[in-house]
Amino acid sequence: MLNKEQIMEILPHRPPMLLVDEIIELDEEHAVGTLHLTGDEFFFQGHFPNNPIMPAVFRLEALAQVGGVALLSIPEFKGKTAVYTGIDNAKFRSMVKPGDTLRMEVKFVKRRGKLAVAQGVAYVGDEKAAEAEIKCMVVD
């Protein structure tokens, strides 16, 4: 549905902090995106050199970016930026390693004006890798 270049037309993030390769489902209430991990990502170099694991905080950031694509695709928010206002109930279920494809599913559970609350779950295959309630706000 959206490739990396199209995602960068919506999100202000750029490599190496862009953590979404493609969006495969998208509407005003949810989005599903993927990140294909090659092992060349900067965070694997130091986390950990002999046992590379995607840091938990980057799993949350990837989820938030997928939600950001959905939120910033709404016409009134075009060209703006979505920023975190909170993260609740974050859980990390399984390791994410080089060669994995992280699939992130984000669904809005509440939206009012420029504020949004989303439930996000990241998977590797059918296994949950991370989940959290993400709160954000759209800013100019």
By CATH, the architecture is named: Roll
Briefly note the CATH topology name: Thiol Ester Dehydrase, Chain A
Helix content: 10-25%
Largest sheet composition: 6 strands, antiparallel
CATH superfamily: Hotdog Thioesterase
Using only C-alpha atoms, the radius of gyration works out to: 14 Å
Order of helices and strands: HEEHEEEE
| Beta strand count | 6
Number of domains: 1
Low-pLDDT windows of residues? none
Overall geometry comes to globular
- The DSSP helix count reads 2
| pLDDT averaged residue by residue | 97
Gist?
The mean pLDDT is 97. The chain is α+β, with helices and mostly antiparallel strands. It is 17% helix and 42% strand.
How is this fold's topology laid out?
Layout: H1 4-10, E1 22-26, E2 30-36, H2 56-72, E3 81-92, E4 101-112, E5 115-124, E6 127-139
List keywords for this structure.
single chain, 140 residues, alpha+beta, Thiol Ester Dehydrase, Chain A, globular
What does this protein look like?
With 140 residues, the protein is of the alpha+beta class. It has a single domain, classed as Thiol Ester Dehydrase, Chain A (Roll), CATH 3.10.129.10. The chain contains 2 helices and 6 strands. Strands 1-2-4-5-6-3 form a 6-stranded antiparallel sheet, covered by helices on one side. A hairpin with a 3-residue loop joins strand 1 and strand 2.
